[in-house]
Design a protein that fits this description.
Oligomer: single chain
CATH class: Mainly Alpha
Shape: globular
Number of helices: 5
Distance between the termini: 33 Å
CATH superfamily: AhpD-like
Length: 110
């Protein structure tokens, strides 16, 4: 989660949503499309990775093909990065101390 929580918060994901990720399927904090994407991420992240055709059918009903390509490639890249870092013992940088990332306050430009 580490740097991803910082990026997510910058893009509008709330700290409450980040804390509720484990319960995304039932949490009222996520919309139907968000739940679909998180279900896809779960399926792609499992070992072995297995995305059921029924899930892909629901995804195709909610997203255009180019959007699906981008979603799948992004999830695949994050899985690659996480497994690569784990293999080399690269630890988190502390961006998500506790459950969410504390984004540094930036000085206002004058």
């Amino acid at each position: 989660m580490d740097i991803g929580s910082a990026v997510s918060r910058h893009e509008g994901v709330t700290a409450e949503q980040i804390a509720a990720l484990a319960d995304y399927a039932t949490s009222p904090l996520f919309g139907e499309r968000e739940r679909l994407v998180l279900e896809l991420a779960d399926a792609m992240t499992s070992t072995p990775a297995a995305v059921p055709e029924a899930l892909f059918a629901r995804l195709r009903a909610a997203f255009a093909e180019p959007q699906l390509v981008e979603l799948v490639s992004t999830i695949a890249w994050e899985n690659y990065r996480a497994r690569f870092n784990l293999s080399f013992g690269i630890a988190a940088e502390g961006f998500s101390e506790g459950a969410t990332c504390a984004v540094p306050v930036r000085a206002l430009a004058k």
